[in-house]
Amino acid sequence: MKIRDIDLFIATRRDVLVKFLTLGLLSVAVPRIVLGADGKPSLRKGRSFQDIKGKVFVNGKLANKRTVIGPNDSVASGSNSGAVFAVGKDAFLLRSNSQLSFQGKQKSGEVEKIDVVSGKVLSVFGKRGENEQPLNMQTAGWGLTVRGTGFYLENDPDASYLCTCYGMVEVASQSDPNSREIIESEYHDQPRYLVNDAPTGRKIESAPFKNHTDQELALIEGLLGRVPPFGIKPDIYKAPRQIDY
């Protein structure tokens, strides 16, 4: 069954994690982040990781909370594993069996390119100025151009999933110049499937909202002292999920 045809997902540990975080049972203080009361970064100065579950690797070596991620490093998670971390002015929630590879400026620590090699990631990006190069991402045959936004991405060879939670993303097929779209969103407005085996000019399809929450966005924005550009609402995705972290 193709991913875009799956309507129901099995509930797993993601919901448990968010509840634990909210109750303060893990290391991240979600209530303060969600409220944005002080505007201060929740991530300790000099640290990259806020939370690690299971086995997470940086450049192939097992990481811990003291491991620092540079703008030219790679981060990967094993089964039943994941991480919450920041690199430069960007922050991420990496789910299990996922890998990101970064390219950027070593001196400033800022990321310029990201390859979503595999898996699932929720990302928020600091603003890129008019005189700065936009951040470029690639995943399973697609390129994304980002200036400052938040989105959730699931890498899949058949049909990757992209929800632009807020901001603007330009998405383009690497094999079909006729499959290109500038997506502008205020609140999870236009989720998309990026379908590699669809006909020319029809590789971008509408999709449902799934598998991520406002609370998670607030969590990773809060690492850098920011809040999402909307009020945090109850979880609007009510169907079961299949999420590992």
Give the SSE map:
Layout: H1 13-23, H2 30-35, E1 49-53, E2 56-58, E3 61-62, E4 74-77, E5 82-87, E6 90-94, E7 99-104, E8 111-118, E9 120-125, E10 135-139, E11 142-146, E12 150-154, E13 159-173, E14 180-185, E15 192-195, E16 204-206, H3 214-222
Parallel strand pairs: 8-10
Antiparallel strand pairs: 1-5, 2-3, 2-4, 4-7, 5-6, 6-9, 7-8, 9-12, 10-11, 11-13, 12-13, 13-14, 13-15, 15-16
Overall radius of gyration: 17 Å
Shape: globular
CATH class of the domain at 3-7 and 54-211: Mainly Beta
Low-confidence stretches: 5-37, 239-243
CATH architectural label of the domain at 3-7 and 54-211: Sandwich
Distance between the termini: 23 Å
Major beta sheet summary: 16 strands, mixed
How much of the residues is beta strand, in percent? 35-45%
What percentage of residues falls in helices of 4 or more residues? 10-25%
Describe the structure.
The structure is a single chain. The protein has 245 residues and is mostly beta strands. It has a domain at 3-7 and 54-211: Jelly Rolls, CATH 2.60.120. 11% of the residues lie in helices and 36% in strands. It contains three helices and 16 strands. The protein has helices at 13-23, 30-35, 214-222, and strands at residues 49-53, 56-58, 61-62, 74-77, 82-87, 90-94, 99-104, 111-118, 120-125, 135-139, 142-146, 150-154, 159-173, 180-185, 192-195, 204-206. The protein has a 16-stranded mixed beta sheet that branches. The radius of gyration is 17 Å and the shape is globular. Residues 5-37 and 239-243 have low confidence and may be disordered.
